[in-house]
Every structure is written in structure tokens, then in C-alpha cells.
Amino acid sequence: MSSVEVKYELTRDDLMCSTCYNDIQFPLFQCQKNQHFHCKVCALIEKKCLECGSSIRRNKGLERQLEDQLEECPFEGCYRSFFPWHLKEHKTKCEFKENECPVCFEKTSLGFMEEHITRECKFSKYLDVEGESGSFDLLKRFQESTMTIDISDLDNYN
Asked: What angle do CA 28, 34, 36 make, to 5 degrees?
């Protein structure tokens, strides 16, 4: 099988959904004429390009060409890859980003916060982490940033 090398120089503005105008990420969908990009959601809903009327399909060839442009998330446990402009935004929201435990202030990733609070946190034995709605309630309140914990009564902790 012979192949032809194709070079693309695409910017963030080029990789925008023609339907909803959001940035697109892998998998890449284009109209059959390869002129218009579509995000996964719009490609599944629309089926045809609203710009030119041709059918929408996944462009695996372009994905292979652009794979080396992707950057991996630096947080341990996250195995996702992004275009450089998406990575910056992702890093602010990644569930594996390090956060301080709201109880002991130890650094742990949000993805492992529940396990940390219920099993590893040095103050967990003083908390009713099970409560009515289970240990997840403590994590949920942390994620919603509405939780405050008064640890002044833990001054005698050894």
C-alpha cells in the first residue's frame, strides 16, 4: 500500500465546529468535502453539514496527521491528550489536579479525594464521613466549595 504525505497547518480558529462554533477535539468529524469541521455532538445530531449539505464523517486520516500535535495532561492518573490550547483549560478542571484536602490540607488529586478523606486523612477518625448520604457527601460539598470544617476541636490530636 502506498501513501501520500499531507501537511496541515491548523489553528484553533480552524478547529471550530461549523454548527455550534465550539472548539473541536478528537475524534475529528468533517463534511464529506473536507471543508467544515463538526464536533462529535453536532456530527451525531446533524448527520449533514449545515454549510454545504454533504454528509458528515469521521476523518481518521486527519486524526493520524494531527496526533503528534496533541499534548498529554501532566497530572498523574489522567491519560487524556489535547491540542495545546485545550490543555491549558483542561488543566484547570482536571479531576486529577492536586487539591488540598479540606480537612488536613494534604495534597491529593480530586479524583482520589473521597478515598483520601475516608481512608487516609489523619483526621478522618474524627469525622462522620459516612453520615446520612455516605462518604461521598463530604466530597460533594468540597467539590461545590460550600463546605467548611471547624477543626478547632482537634487541637488535642496526637
From this structure: 70
The residues, ordered by sequence, that sit 6+ positions from 101 with a Cβ below 8 Å of its Cβ are 107, 108, 113, 116, 117, 121
123 assigned to some structural domain: yes
Cα torsion for 6, 11, 15, 19, to the nearest 10°? -130
Amino acid at 156: N
**Percent of all residues in the chain with a pLDDT value above 70, rounded to a whole number:** 74
Mean of per-residue pLDDT scores for the chain: 78
H-assigned helices in 5-158: 40-46, 60-66, 84-93, 113-115, 136-143
pLDDT, tens digit, for every residue of 8-54?
677 788 888 999 998 888 889 999 988 899 999 999 998 899 999 99
pLDDT tens for 66-75 read: 888 899 999 8
Is position 1 within any domain?
Answer: no
For residue 28, with 0-12 CB atoms within 10 Å meaning exposed, 13-18 middle and 19 or more buried, which class applies? buried
| Domain membership of residue 138 as a residue range | 98-152
